[in-house]
Design goal:
Elements: E1 2-11, E2 14-24, E3 29-33, H1 40-48, E4 55-60, E5 63-64, E6 75-79, H2 90-101, H3 105-118, H4 134-146, E7 152-156, H5 164-181, E8 185-189, H6 192-198, E9 201-206, E10 209-214, H7 216-221, H8 226-231, E11 236-238, E12 241-243, E13 248-252, E14 261-269, E15 272-279, E16 284-289, E17 300-305, E18 310-312
Parallel strand pairs: 3-8, 3-9, 6-7, 7-8
Antiparallel strand pairs: 1-2, 1-4, 4-5, 9-10, 11-12, 12-18, 13-17, 14-15, 14-17, 15-16
Helix pairs in contact: 2-3, 2-4, 3-4
Amino acid sequence: MLRADDVNVRFDGKAALDGVSLDVGDGEVVTVLGPSGSGKSTLLRVIAGLQRPDSGHVLLDGEDLSSVPPHRRGIGLVFQDHALFHHHDVAGNVAFGLRMRGDAKNEVESRVRELLDLVGLAGFERRSVATLSGGEQQRVALARALAPQPHVLLLDEPLGALDRRLRDRLLEDLARLFEELRVTALYVTHDQAEAFALGDRVAIMRSGRVVQAGSPDGLWARPADEDVARFLGLGNVRDGAIVRPEAVTVARAANREAADGVVESAVRHGPTVRLRVRLASGETLDAAVSALDHPDPGDLVAVTIDPEGIIELP
């Protein structure tokens, strides 16, 4: 098991990490979700040994890693910018850690073929990494990180530089690989869809702290506070409670007397449409609808709320 225990890091007197504690169980994927500047990448750097904490400890299977250099921690790293060696071909990149470890040549070649097949790049051994697409380069980076069979895999916004189509494809591939290999991983992202798709648990960071951690369903069902709720897209906060967008039903009103408000915007997000309704009181209310025939901006609407979709905030 990997554990960060009460880790603190300060830059120029400002806390980048403020008493962060987080654990990752064997074979578990924990995603760390938060906005830019929340401390996600700093936490990964501390665990990898690239940033010394001001206080606190990182433990792996009970061993304190404070005096263990990065290359001896048994931790694989995948970054957003790939960090590939352009003077090596694909096979040379994947084999790098194995050769540094002193593995036999035939074992290295066998492991390289195995990993490239696993990430969908069989036959790419002699290709120059400079000729690869962004998605292919990220697959090489993943294969290189997995090759030495690390105890833990750390991924820092690995899909952030890719377009949406490639990101969605690699997200599916990562989910498959994590499940197939039973990888123990800590995955940093600012993208909620990535975090919820990959994480057995999700840790939400804000201002250098882990403010809530739990399963994706658990976070969605019970956000810790209003800021977490809004960050997750549960923006309807009224009288100390959250109204889930999917609990709000919106229907076109026959006339102004039957209307509760007017639709201000309608934005499609894949299979759902997010409606924002301006109520007669002046408040706004978001609704998530899946019907193709939905109210449009300017339409007068009647609004009903399912009481089961109301969450009382702590």
